Amino acid sequence: MEQLHIIGSDRPLKGEMVISGAKNAALPIMCAALLSDETLHLSNVPMLRDVATTCRLLADMGAKIEQDGVSQIDICCKEINDFRAKYDLVKTMRASILVLGPMLARFGQAQVSLPGGCAIGSRPVDLHIKGLQAMGADICIEHGYIKAKADRLKGCRFVMDAVTVTGTENLMMAAALADGETVLENAAMEPEVSDLGECLIKMGAEITGLGTPTLRIKGKEKLHGTRHAIIADRIEAGTFLCALAMTRGQLLLKNAAPHTMDAVLDKLTEAGMVIECGKDWIAADMQHRPNAVNIHTAPYPAFPTDMQAQFMAMNCIANGASTITENIFENRFMHIPELNRMGADIMFNGKTATVKGVSKLSGAKVMATDLRASASLVIAGLVADGTTIVDRIYHLDRGYEHIETKLGNVGAEIKRVKGG
Ligand code: UD1
């Protein structure tokens, strides 16, 4: 199993980094290829484990996939001959549920293994199912699979009683081929949902309200192929800015999407970072120990749960105490014991953690159980005394492209080590 070895230092980060395409936009957009018999040409796709898993998932169903290994993927779903997303793949990536809506809408049938629990909570998919049922699907759960059938789905008004990102995406894709208009209320407003919407529009869909809680989708008989460049990853960019807040220094993030990062950039400014943005770049300068900042997570445009662990790492070495409240997932504090092993002072009760900033962390062998938690341990390692060894980095590889190279290029001492 691979590990990351990080040698902590007082050296500030300095230089330029290119931000990759967003994992959470790439995955639904790749699944949108199922809506058409023509080819979807995607660029700025991050080469991540979850992207490889989605390729396998689609290829298993009969999709033809060509990739250049850098950032382009062409997907053609003309000949789909298996309508199942099997447990073996779904269990490694919950986002596999995103094939349900498009397959049902185009082929009238789909079987997707229930994702089950995951490290950061139970994460049900009841709203995906209820929404498709409201569009006329016949759905049952058998042998661990969601089995769905429908003639042509019918447009309807569906109010989601919780904001769900992949739920909104699944229903938006299904509605794009349904008969008549679908109105999704309390829809997720995340930029990745809008990026999927923009791609669907290029494929011929009629969608209004992207970026608002009400999406109106007029179903079409057929969608066609198109070209689409995936939006920049706001979570990757935010993670590197947290690393900068901790190490101090100056970074220029290129190919970024600062307009999708308001809540995160505001908090970093409160922490003391000087930030300047252009359309697709962020210049950030941090010259002193960060001020502790309070965080509570909520759906976009509020502060993202996917940045909670990284801000906690920053608060560990900040000046002052802070509270961090996790409102989206019930079990997303697994990085706390690991950060405490590195000398942090964090207590938590229910969904709120209290972090007292300490002047120094100390390197340790740590292990993370989810993607963003792993990222928090890596950036904590950058400023810890001695060596930090982060185990189980397959979690990191699900969502960060070449993280050791990108951080290494701006001055971090970090290497990937086999075995251990
Ligand atoms: C997506 C993101 C993930 C991010 C999360 C919240 C992808 C591939 N993943 O996950 O990185 O952390 O949004 O921003 O885009 N819920 C229900 N019923 C449902 C669906 C969700 O109760 O049918 C609840 C969940 O348990 C959770 C909340 O809604 O408490 C938000 O979950 P959701 O937005 O669906 O997360 P994902 O789409 O799985």
Q: Tell me about the largest β-sheet.
A: 4 strands, mixed
Query: For the terminal residues, how far apart are their CA atoms?
Result: 7 Å
What is the molecular shape?
A: elongated
The helix count comes to 14
Radius of gyration over C-alpha positions, nearest whole angstrom: 21 Å
Task: Write out the strand line-up for the largest beta sheet, numbering strands in chain order.
Answer: 23-25-1-26
SS-derived structural category: alpha/beta
Small-molecule binders here are:
uridine-diphosphate-N-acetylglucosamine
Low-pLDDT residue spans:
none
Secondary-structure blueprint of this entry?
Layout: E1 3-7, E2 13-18, H1 23-32, E3 39-43, H2 49-61, E4 64-67, E5 73-76, E6 84-85, H3 87-90, H4 100-107, E7 109-113, H5 126-134, E8 138-142, E9 145-149, E10 157-159, H6 165-176, E11 181-185, H7 191-202, E12 206-208, E13 214-218, E14 226-229, H8 234-247, E15 249-254, H9 262-271, E16 274-277, E17 281-286, E18 295-296, H10 308-316, E19 321-325, H11 335-341, E20 345-349, E21 352-356, E22 361-362, E23 365-367, H12 371-382, E24 384-385, E25 387-391, H13 394-399, H14 403-409, E26 413-417
Parallel strand pairs: 2-15, 3-14, 6-7, 10-11, 18-19, 22-24, 23-25
Antiparallel strand pairs: 1-25, 1-26, 3-5, 4-5, 7-9, 8-9, 11-13, 12-13, 15-17, 16-17, 19-21, 20-21
Helix pairs in contact: 1-2, 1-7, 4-6, 5-6, 6-7, 8-9, 8-10, 8-12, 10-12
